[in-house]
Amino acid sequence: MVKLRVEFLGGLDVVFNKQRTYDLDIPSSGAFTIKDLLDYLVDKMIDNPKDVEVFIEDGTVRPGIITLINDADWELEGELEYEIEDGDVISFTSTLHGG
To answer: Where is this cross-link: Glycyl lysine isopeptide (Gly-Lys) (interchain with K-? in acceptor proteins) (predicted)?
Structure first.
């Protein structure tokens, strides 16, 4: 079991039932990576299939969405391969705004 907090900011909360913060307990029998988390979020937490493309593109976080792992840029932490630990906070902040 992996316990973590996931935050959806900058309007992304609309895709995730208009809720900005989730405390998750995710069953896992081994290493649980950011890639696994993205798969979980798409499969379990996005109700409208059309909303997936707002969040994911080509198997990763869509360009224009800042991803932080414990307030550090995910690029410094290994991006999709980062192994999530209990207590981690993963934040997704959209910089894409309509006009």
So the answer is: 99
